[in-house]
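Q: Sequence in, structure out?
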Amino acid sequence: MTPPIYIRLSFLIEDVEEDMGPTALLPGTHGTHVNSPPWFTAPDGQPRQVPEMVLASGKAGDCLINDTSIYHTNTPNLSDRVRKVIWALYAGSRTPIWV
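A: Exactly. Output:
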């Protein structure tokens, strides 16, 4: 199934470090327009460690922009801090709002 294409803006309210559960992205997969493959997520629901994987971490005030058709998944928050992020989604006028 081809997922709808959204552009996601992630505004970091506080610093988000790699142990705080940032989104894991797999560069180069944005042109596939298919859902992330099963091998990208382990049976426990957490992402597998893939050498090319990038974690969307950054400093307070950063805005991270990505095409949501890129393979992406959650990572566990292993810190004692809450990850504070504001997401804004943009889509074409004919793209379904939610599936």
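DSSP finds no helices and six strands in the chain.
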